[in-house]
């Protein structure tokens, strides 16, 4: 059931976005929940309650035994990538950008749905699960090519040199891509408003970006189902689904 004050909160958030010179969105798994992609944490468990991230998504374990990662990838691929389409929340961010009310989308998501929806400036902090590379010859592979190799062997190998493949995602224990992080930090510092959508805000350094906005005098608006550690410092917190809130928010900002 909708919180009684969601409409008022959307109205207040829209006022902040309209008045801002520079708005940046910061998104997490929750924005893709309505596209059918499971979140990592939050209500109902999430992927990391079924798969131990230390085993399935850490660089240490990937180096030791990459087959865990690839099994995880094989399990979730159909659900995560095959059927998933951008939802109204992704599309609302596209509208805001086109109308000149959104500078960029900084995302922790690896699903590629922001670009697919039509967002032009997207910073993928954690990489993309649609790109792969060979750790030996550095050949680049598409999702379909990696999938074909995975059908032949676990873990899969490079079609050119038989070297080990890896996803172009940031695994736990790895650094974020430096130039993407630098650009994200600059955008966060200079934003008057950071619109956080669908993130538990517990994984750093990414989760530190809204804090940077605050420290530099900007406001933080959070749209998330469930609590986050930044709720207390947010100018507006809307505890409701992104696909429900964002189209209304964009409509109210653009009018
Ligand atoms: N709308 C808005 N928020 C939602 C929705 C929805 N429809 N459905 C779920 N949520 C909330 C969840 O309740 C949770 O608080 O979205 C949040 C998603 O949090 P996480 O699953 O922790 O996702 P995220 O913050 O993106 O995770 C950060 O952790 O494991 C790593 O690398 C992974 O990029 C990921 C990082």
Describe the protein.
The chain is built from eleven helices and nine strands. It has 255 residues and is α/β, with parallel strands linked by helices. The strands form two sheets. A six-stranded parallel β-sheet has the order 3-2-1-7-8-9, with helices on both faces. Bound molecules: adenosine-5-diphosphoribose. The site of adenosine-5-diphosphoribose has 23 residues, from loops.
Gist of the model:
The protein folds into 2 domains: 1-37 and 86-126 and 175-255, Rossmann fold; 40-83 and 131-169, SIR2/SIRT2 'Small Domain' (2-Layer Sandwich), CATH 3.30.1600. Helices cover 40% and strands 16% of the residues.
List the helices and strands and how they pair.
Elements: H1 6-19, E1 23-27, H2 47-50, H3 53-56, H4 59-64, H5 67-82, H6 88-98, E2 104-107, H7 113-117, E3 122-124, E4 127-134, E5 140-142, H8 143-152, E6 165-169, H9 178-190, E7 193-197, H10 209-215, E8 219-223, E9 236-238, H11 242-254
Parallel strand pairs: 1-2, 1-7, 2-3, 7-8, 8-9
Antiparallel strand pairs: 4-5, 4-6
Major sheet: order of its strands?
3-2-1-7-8-9
Task: Write down how many β-strands occur, each being a DSSP E stretch of 2 or more residues.
Answer: 9
Order of helices and strands: HEHHHHHEHEEEHEHEHEEH
Distance between the termini: 26 Å
């Amino acid at each position: 059931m909708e919180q009684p004050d969601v409409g008022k909160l959307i109205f207040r958030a829209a006022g902040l976005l309209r008045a801002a010179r520079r708005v940046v969105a910061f998104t997490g798994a929750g924005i893709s929940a309505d596209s059918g992609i499971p979140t990592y944490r939050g209500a109902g468990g999430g992927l990391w309650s079924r798969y131990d991230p230390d085993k399935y998504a850490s660089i240490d374990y990937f180096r030791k035994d990459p087959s865990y990662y690839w099994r995880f990838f094989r399990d979730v691929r159909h659900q995560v990538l095959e059927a998933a389409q951008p939802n109204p929340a992704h599309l609302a961010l596209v509208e805001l950008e086109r109308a000149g009310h959104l500078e960029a989308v900084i995302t922790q998501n690896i699903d590629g749905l922001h670009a697919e929806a039509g967002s032009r400036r997207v910073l993928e902090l954690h990489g993309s699960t649609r790109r792969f590379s060979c750790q030996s010859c550095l050949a680049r592979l598409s999702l379909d090519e990696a999938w074909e190799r995975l059908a032949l062997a676990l873990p899969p190998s490079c079609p050119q040199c038989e070297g080990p493949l890896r996803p172009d995602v940031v695994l736990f224990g790895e650094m974020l891509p430096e130039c993407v992080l630098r650009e994200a930090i600059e955008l966060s510092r200079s934003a008057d408003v950071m619109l956080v959508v669908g993130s538990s805000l517990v994984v750093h350094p990414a989760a530190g970006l809204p804090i940077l906005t605050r420290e530099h005098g900007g406001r933080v608006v959070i749209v998330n189902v469930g609590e986050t550690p930044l709720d207390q410092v947010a100018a507006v917190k809307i505890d409701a689904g992104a696909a429900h809130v964002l189209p209304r928010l964009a409509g109210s900002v653009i009018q």
